[in-house]
């Protein structure tokens, strides 16, 4: 991450056009469209909304104005027909936009045979069964690029989606992937890993920061273990014991996924700040079987509220976080838009368990005003005792300020509420802060980033950032220190976040500090992270090389 992938591909597009490959013959184009498809010289770039600004900025900085005709294809800005799209050199769209058009037969994007398709942050399509994945796989193009700094998010199966998008046979065929790679890997056979290493060496272009070509300053990562305060430890042990008993009562934990997830979420929140938990926490685990939960609207609403507290939930249909979640009668959770659209096209059945489902079987939590939440949390935070982690964070920030008063830091958390809670004590400690989270529009986030990147002496020195809203596709090189308030299940997400700071443009050494609660579930998450990292390292290590070979490094 941060080594110029966007600029590299933009250079390719510009060079390609300059070489004359983009010459259009309008008569030919018209005939092609009438027959159902149009061959184009345009490049389609698919990316998350947060990365739009990066592409626009690179265009403005590194191309002659007007040399590449660019079109935004999302929301109300979508072209009505394929011919209009083909008048551009570069078309920018989002994964969610394409997801919505997966079932639209006359989608203009489907009718174009693109010069090339570029998936930016391509790991987003890690689930090959998701609508957005199916859509990009089905598009027509002469060339395909899957671009990401973290191709493996959870396991080797993540790579299958990239193979499917690239149409790289036979690995793009799921049965072959399972027999040649996935099954041998699961069985611990060397053949599976060897095949994966040969495959990735053959089709991937890869550049790491340790090669020293760009002269980036060093990055150090340290884990600071925090001992929970007595009241935090007491509640953690009590909830852990009750959760353990409840999980043992389940015959099959998979069928009770929402309940299990909610219990793990509460344990993680206790490790970070008790204020993240509801006052009636004991009620969370009062029900001991799934049937009670699925038939109790009050408990369903409470469950959705709990999941809304965390930003690591992904809708199984669009594989994206959503602020507007609903839970079904059969206890599965989706984005509201996704499940309503799915029910219209799937004979009213749950996409996961195939049980009969109607709109009356969907439950949602009350929508809270983020502004009211912010005001209430900020006003009450000054009256309560700081959590063990918040105290540790402020101490670290004070030490950093003593060494360099102008030094800037980014504090990442999965929980938006925590970011709000931290604002008041940081202000009391004399820090000028900014906040960026998922409740803000793209324009608001861009304004915050501009303020933080500014060079004014009295400007903000601490950015409180949501891991989901600002963990990818943005530039925060004004900072030199990063704090993670809690570990994330997926190490690739953390790597993406820390490399918002350690990237091209960074002039100072970067320090990463991870705050981890001692003797807690967070230590188990670190162990899980290491297993995922090892798989990624092995995947990109040349077959037969030693530890000094082409390895996946952070």
Description of the structure:
- By secondary structure, this protein is of the alpha/beta class.
- It folds into three domains: 5-167, 3-Layer(aba) Sandwich (Rossmann fold); 219-227 and 387-539, Rossmann fold (3-Layer(aba) Sandwich), CATH 3.40.50; 230-364, Zinc/RING finger domain, C3HC4 (zinc finger) (Herpes Virus-1), CATH 3.30.40.10.
- Helix content is 44%, strand content 14%.
- It is built from 22 helices and 15 strands.
- The protein has helices at residues 5-18, 26-34, 49-62, 82-85, 95-100, 108-111, 131-138, 157-166, 174-186, 190-203, 230-248, 257-272, 290-294, 297-309, 336-345, 370-381, 388-403, 416-428, 442-453, 467-470, 491-498, 521-539, and strands at residues 38-39, 43-47, 70-73, 90-94, 112-120, 140-147, 219-226, 325-328, 333-335, 362-364, 409-413, 433-436, 462-466, 481-484, 510-517.
- Strands 1, 2, 3, 4, 5 and 6 form a six-stranded parallel β-sheet that branches.
- Strand 3 (70-73), helix 4 (82-85) and strand 4 form a beta-alpha-beta unit.
- Helix 11 (230-248) runs antiparallel to helix 12.
- The longest helix has 19 residues, at 230-248.
- The protein is globular and about 65 Å long.
């Amino acid at each position: 991450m941060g080594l110029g992938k966007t600029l590299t591909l933009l250079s390719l597009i510009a060079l390609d056009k300059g070489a004359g490959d983009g010459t259009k013959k309008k008569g030919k184009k018209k005939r092609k469209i009438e027959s159902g498809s149009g061959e184009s010289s345009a490049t389609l770039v698919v990316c998350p909304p947060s990365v739009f600004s990066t592409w626009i900025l690179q265009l403005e900085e590194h191309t002659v104005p007007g040399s590449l005709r660019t079109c935004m294809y999302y929301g109300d800005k979508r072209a009505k027909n394929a011919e209009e799209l083909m008048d551009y050199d570069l078309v920018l769209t989002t994964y969610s936009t394409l997801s919505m058009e997966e079932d639209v037969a006359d989608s203009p994007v489907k009718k174009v045979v693109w010069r090339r398709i570029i998936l930016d942050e391509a790991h987003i399509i890690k689930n090959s069964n998701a609508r957005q994945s199916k859509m990009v796989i089905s598009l027509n193009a002469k060339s395909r690029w899957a671009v990401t700094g973290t191709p493996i998010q959870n396991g080797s199966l993540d790579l299958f989606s990239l193979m499917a998008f690239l149409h790289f046979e036979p690995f793009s065929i799921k049965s072959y992937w399972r027999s040649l790679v996935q099954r041998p890997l699961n069985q611990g056979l060397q053949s599976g890993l060897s095949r994966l290493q040969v495959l990735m060496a053959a089709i991937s272009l890869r550049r790491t920061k340790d090669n020293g070509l760009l002269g980036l300053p060093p990055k150090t990562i340290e884990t600071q273990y925090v001992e929970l305060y007595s009241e935090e430890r007491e509640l953690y042990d009590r909830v852990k014991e009750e959760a353990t008993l409840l999980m043992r009562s389940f015959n099959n934990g998979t069928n009770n996924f929402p309940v299990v997830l909610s219990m793990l979420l509460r344990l993680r929140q206790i490790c970070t700040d008790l204020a993240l938990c509801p006052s009636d926490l004991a009620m969370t685990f009062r029900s001991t079987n799934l049937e009670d939960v699925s038939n109790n609207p009050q408990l369903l609403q409470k469950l959705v509220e709990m999941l809304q507290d965390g930003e690591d939930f992904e809708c199984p249909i669009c594989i994206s976080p959503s602020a507007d979640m609903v839970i079904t009668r059969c206890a599965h959770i989706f984005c509201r838009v996704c499940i309503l659209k799915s029910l219209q096209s799937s004979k009213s059945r749950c996409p996961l368990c195939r049980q009969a489902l109607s709109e009356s079987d969907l439950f949602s939590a009350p929508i809270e005003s983020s502004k009211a939440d912010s005001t209430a949390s900020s006003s009450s935070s000054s009256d309560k005792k700081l959590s063990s982690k918040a105290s540790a964070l402020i101490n670290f920030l004070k030490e950093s300020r003593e060494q360099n008063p102008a030094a800037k830091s980014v504090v990442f958390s999965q929980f938006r509420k925590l970011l709000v809670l931290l604002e008041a004590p940081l202000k009391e400690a004399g820090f000028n802060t900014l906040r960026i989270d998922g409740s803000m529009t793209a324009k608001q986030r861009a304004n915050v980033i501009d303020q933080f990147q500014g060079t004014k002496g009295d400007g903000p020195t601490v950015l409180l950032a949501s891991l989901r809203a600002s963990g990818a596709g943005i530039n925060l090189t004004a900072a030199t220190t990063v704090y993670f308030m809690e570990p994330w299940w997926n190490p690739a997400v953390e790597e993406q976040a820390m490399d918002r700071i350690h990237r091209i443009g960074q002039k100072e050494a970067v320090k990463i500090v991870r705050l981890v609660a001692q003797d807690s579930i967070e230590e188990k998450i670190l162990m899980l992270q290491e297993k995922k990292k090892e798989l990624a390292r092995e995947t990109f290590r040349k077959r037969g090389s030693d530890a000094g070979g082409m390895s996946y490094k952070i």
